[in-house]
Amino acid sequence: MSRRLTYQGKALLLILLLFLLWWFLPALFKRATRVAFQEFQAPAWTALSYLHDLQDFWSHRLRPRHELIEAGIDLSRLNAAYALRNQRMEVMEGEILRLEAMLGLPSLPQHRYEVARVVRRELTNWWQYLVIRKGSLHGVAPGQAVVFAGGVVGRVRDVQPYTAVVQLVSSPDFRAAVHFGGDERPLEFVGGLNPTLGPALGTLRSVPADVRLHSERPLTIVSSRLGGVFPDGFFIGTVEHLELGTDGLFQTGRVRLNDRLLTVREVAVIIPLDGTTP
Amino acid sequence: MRNSQRAFSILLFNLLLLWLLHEANGLLAGWRIHLHGEVLFVIFSALYLRVLHGATLVMISGLFIDVYSPFNYGLHAISLLLLWTVCVVLRQRVRRENPRHVMLVAIVCQLIHLPLWHLAAAQGRLGEALYWLRGGGDLLASLLFVGATAYLWCEMQRLWLLWLGWNLNAEMHRLHR
Predict the structure, then answer these.
(1) N or C: which end of chain A has fewer CB within 10 A?
(2) How many angstroms separate the CA of residue B99 from the nearest CA in chain A?
(3) Over 70: is that where the pLDDT of B173 sits?
């Protein structure tokens, strides 16, 4: 019987068998396979990321000496400015603690930053994520916030010992509580519109009807601590468009995200100091 | 070395392709363009290898891609197997030595694969124009990419197997077993 089967017939039969096999395989086996494939791949991606670092190192080595000296001078200026800002921040933190004690307020959650390099990025129309070079061994856990110099990057979705997958703020299934800069009323942000050759966009919901756009003073969206994931005040994007909903009570808007978000190479994971995970 | 062992060396090419696509997409990220090269994972296995070797290779490659996907584990593997089946069915009608035929198979498969993925993975965004605009941009770029590289990619793998001592062009009749 099998001898009468054509090549195409054999292929269809085999596919059918493979589908049935995969369908009835126990979930534990599938999970084990996934972990095995992941553990097999992770060192290769990490090694490639180190190769990129090496490439950067040699490209800097080939630069003329005067360019490096100028960059060093710029960095020392920045360091001096940041040192001053740190001093000012310490004074302000002391003031906050004093006021909290005086007014009997609950203290703000404390956290540290774990800086990580981006190993790979997957930015499709269906999902947007980064893989970073820090994992559970460095204290990273699912649900933690990830930021960079330009604001919010996203949230940790999955963690392995040395790597973690970060769901980007531009991903269609990303949702977070946000508010306008200077206006504490909570809003809902949903990521996910990434047109070709255009800026990454997100959607803003539950905007009060009294909010208006000003051409000379753009509205910025920042993170809110309401969701329990992000600290307050990290930049997310600027509002481009607002439209009154059918109920007449709330508006929906379009948010333009930071252009640097999709080419970011270094991020920081916000790790709570009290050991809790969001 | 047996032919089955030689066939599985093609898995190295698929891993290389995974890395090359990742590098290319990293460069294109700033323009919000994503190249989909799924057809390149299956075309050589479908046009040149035996059924069992081809399907196993495609399944393993799909599971490699599935690792970081937020969808159910195995979805890419199944979609690649379906794509491979389409290629296998088309194999009867094409001459794999002809670059135009290989290019046509790659383009037809990509035209089937990507819109189906867009329909299946829309997550309630089927009515949004920007979703389809981005999908159209990705499809156009991917068609150009697979159309331009499919034949060369197959030839590279064929020459690799020839270097390993397996002349696929001389064993046409055996492949249909």
Answers:
(1) N
(2) 22
(3) no
Q: For residue B151, how many other CB atoms are within 10 A of its CB?
A: 20
Q: Do A10 and B51 touch (CB under 8 A)?
A: yes
Q: Is the ipTM of this complex over 0.85?
A: no
With a cut of 90, say whether residue B150 has pLDDT above it. yes
Element (H, E) at A239: strand A235-244
Nearest Cβ partner for B52 among A14, A127, A129: A14
E-strand spans in A181-262? 183-193, 201-208, 220-223, 235-244, 250-257
A244: tokens are 């009154």
The pTM (predicted TM-score) of the whole model is 0.84
Nearest CA among A93, A107, A151, A86 for reference residue A272: A107
Whole-number Å distance between alpha carbons of A117 and A110: 23
Amino acid of residue A106: P
Residue linked to tokens 């584990």: B73
From chain B, the residues in CB contact with A196 under 8 A are 31-33, 133-134, 136-138
Helix (H, G, I), strand (E, B) or coil at A113: strand
Residues of B in contact with A52 (CB under 8 A): none
Nearest to B58, CA basis, from A131, A121, A126, A22: A22
pLDDT in the model for residue A154: 95
